[in-house]
């Protein structure tokens, strides 16, 4: 991103942002509500165009998966049909179910393929949403506060699982959150945005082991990273 600007109702939500993201990175965008995190994600997904500056990618065209804060599952479709939906929209035939079953297995839901959203817990619905994003084999996975509405234990398990999927699949991940603990735990690199204008207050490589397990949550090194991120968040 070079000098990117995005305006809503005569207010610049993002103003003059420049940011480079390497292939295969796990980047977290951290900041308070209303700072432009989701706007940034939508532009990366090509769901919105910048009002100024430019966004360049290599290659220019790439497959993108998007996971929203709400799972947005179709209640009349079971987990398998929900996961297969992007392939169905692309015109793929019955083979889409084989691919959908494979991604459900990747997120640990192979035994729940025939269940409907109303029969699934919040964490399971979010895993179906993640499977739906993965079924097209994206090179870029974008997540907009996907675990914010979940209980802490469920969120902890999904954070670990997401890191494992990233390791295994080798995709680029951009993860938006306002949670300092979540950002420190999942990120290889964290960018903290200012409250207004989307200015970058901190761009930091997270100094933690590549493998992240729940045992790490009690480690002093995680606490140190959280302290650095918190200090950046509190700066005016």
Q: What's the CATH C level of the largest domain?
A: Alpha Beta
| Main sheet characteristics | 6 strands, mixed
Q: Can you tell me the CATH superfamily of the largest domain?
A: P-loop containing nucleotide triphosphate hydrolases
CATH architecture of the largest domain: 3-Layer(aba) Sandwich
Strand order of the largest sheet: 5-6-7-3-8-9
Number of DSSP strand runs: 9
* Structural class by secondary-structure content: alpha/beta
The fold-level CATH name of the largest domain is: Rossmann fold
- Rg for CA atoms: 18 Å
Order of helices and strands: EEEHEEHHHEHEHEEH
Report the sheet-strand fraction: 15-25%
- In helices, the fraction of residues equals 25-40%
Number of domains: 2
Number of helices: 7
Shape by Cα distribution: globular
Describe this structure in a few short sentences.
It contains 7 helices and 9 strands; from the N terminus they run E-E-E-H-E-E-H-H-H-E-H-E-H-E-E-H. The chain has helices at 37-44, 79-89, 95-106, 122-134, 152-169, 180-186, 220-234; strands at residues 2-8, 11-17, 26-30, 52-54, 64-67, 140-144, 172-177, 189-193, 200-205.
